[in-house]
Design brief:
Residues 104-138 are annotated as: Disordered. Residues 126-138 have a biased composition (Low complexity). The chain is rod-shaped, with a radius of gyration of 42 Å. It has two domains: 9-130, Arc Repressor Mutant, subunit A (Orthogonal Bundle); 153-237, no CATH class. It has 263 residues and is of the alpha+beta class. It has helices spanning 9-15, 19-29, 50-56, 64-76, 123-126, 132-149, 157-163, 168-180, 187-199, 204-214, and strands at residues 36-40, 43-47, 80-85, 88-93. It is built from ten helices and four strands. The chain has a four-stranded antiparallel β-sheet with strand order 1-2-4-3, covered by helices on one side.
Length: 263
């Protein structure tokens, strides 16, 4: 029994076929994959037993007489050449009948004696499951899509630093410093450091060395990274004020001058 029937609805409407006849024609279209060949006057026919049709299409046929009437009807519509020889029903598609496959040439690209244009499905699949190849292709595509959707693993800190030219001991020291300060090493962080390094006209590796030496978690081109003057821009976040707010005795023993208007 066939698990699936592939009916060309457009051709059925064009040729005036009902659903039963459409299923039968689909079976005949693939006869080269399962029926026995019989050569008559140099032409290849296929022996299609009525009982075999009933066995393959139990949903559509249950009586041999009905199968015979539909053979005759398909012959009358010039879709098949039907011969009765030695009690055998012999079938071959006509040129008109071979156009059945025009709608699915990409699905059935192989050629055959029955349909030299593009009809024959692999016999290994046609009887039991003519859509087996299509299903397998869909599964492969789905698996490919699933694999492509998996998140790409994030690069390690060493690999990320290496992309910016920071390697060996300098990279390890920088990773250790960032770990102590609980400051992550990310693409965004390194891009920002690269921007400031470009402004300061320094290579990024030198900026990283300065950050490690001064125990900075960031870098700004306006900071006193040379150590020659006070900060002209944003101060180092880690710098502390000279006098603590909690120390109330810092003024003792000092002379304080206040400039301004006397109230």
């Amino acid at each position: 029994m066939r698990f699936s029937s592939y009916i060309n609805n457009a051709k059925c409407l064009e040729w005036g076929l009902n659903a039963n006849q459409g299923a039968l024609f689909d079976l005949l279209n693939q006869a080269s994959g399962w029926a026995r060949e019989v050569v008559i006057n140099g032409s290849v026919y296929y022996w299609v037993s009525r009982n075999e049709v009933i066995s393959e299409l139990p949903l559509f046929y249950s009586k041999p007489d009905t199968v015979y009437r539909h053979f005759v009807e398909l012959d009358r519509k010039d879709l098949i050449d039907y011969l009765k020889v030695d009690g055998k029903d012999l079938i071959r598609l006509t040129p008109k009948g071979k156009t059945w496959n025009e709608f699915n040439s990409e699905i059935n690209p192989k050629t055959s004696d029955l349909n030299p244009n593009n009809s024959e499905i692999d016999p290994k699949n046609s009887d039991l499951n003519p859509t087996n190849n299509i299903t397998n292709n869909n599964i492969k595509k789905d698996l490919t899509n699933v694999k492509s959707k998996k998140a790409t693993p994030k690069p390690t800190a060493l690999a990320l630093l290496a992309e910016f030219g920071i390697t060996d001991q300098l990279a390890e020291d920088f990773i250790e410093q960032r770990k102590v300060k609980k400051a992550p090493i990310t693409q965004t962080v390194l891009n920002r450091l690269q921007t400031q390094a470009d402004i300061a006209k320094l290579p990024l590796v030198e900026v990283v060395a300065i950050m490690i030496d001064r125990n900075w978690t960031g870098f700004n081109a306006n900071w006193d990274w040379r150590g020659e003057s006070q900060f002209s821009g944003k101060a180092d976040p880690s710098s502390k004020p000279k006098f603590s707010d909690e120390n109330t005795t810092w003024w003792q023993g000092r002379t304080i001058e206040i400039y301004g208007d006397t109230l």
